[in-house]
Amino acid sequence: MTFRNVIVCRIVPGSESKVGEVFGHYDRATRPQDLGVIGRTLLSFHGLYIHLIERVADPKVTGQTRGLPAFQQIAEEIAPYVTPYPSYWKNPSDSVAKEFYHWAPPGGPEPDQATAAANRTVIVARIKPGAEPEVARIFGESDAGQLPVQLGVTGRWLYAIDDVYVHVVERRPDADAIAESHDRPAFSKIMDDLRPYISPYHPASWHGPDDAVATPFYRWQAED
């Protein structure tokens, strides 16, 4: 099963293309797959930088913890644009969000990575400190029913870092769009249940769930 890491930092608005160019250069010039990295997506959301890394296995098991052979060079080149988010930041590992919930259809085959990446949505919000167990419980109860299957969900991962909540959801290519699910009673119940714990990251621009979706600005997938 593919292992995912999510890194959360701050990004200078408008610098996405420069950061993407740095990763594009090193992803072409080096072989991240030799370190177990098979894909990456960079996204931005109201001054946040989200780096989703896909690996063939948990790096704690394989010992391959670096994302690229040129990790230091990349860090130096994007430093003018990407800076730490957490107030407690001391080293790069402090930028890795903690996964606190994961769901996939029981017995279902894992989609290939190119298909998964093309049908992935990354939702960003704020989370009440310490609320991870309650949020996981709410999704666990919902995912035990028919809603995720009805919406074509093939995988869901929830992460938190400081007050940032990141919800990664993957769907079948033929699944309904998120906007088409808002009127379902079960979806509305989840939103109501989450309200004490999850709130918009950028309230001024939030009018509905679609306004919580991060924008991808760079993708790379290993070809071998």
Automatic annotation (TrEMBL):
Record-given protein name: TcmI family type II polyketide cyclase
Gene3D superfamilies assigned to the protein according to its UniProt record, in alphabetical order: Dimeric alpha+beta barrel
Source organism: Micromonospora zhanjiangensis
InterPro entries cross-referenced by the UniProt entry: Dimeric_a/b-barrel, Polyketide_synth_cyclase, Polyketide_synth_cyclase_sf
Pfam families: Cyclase_polyket (PF04673)
Domain of life: Bacteria
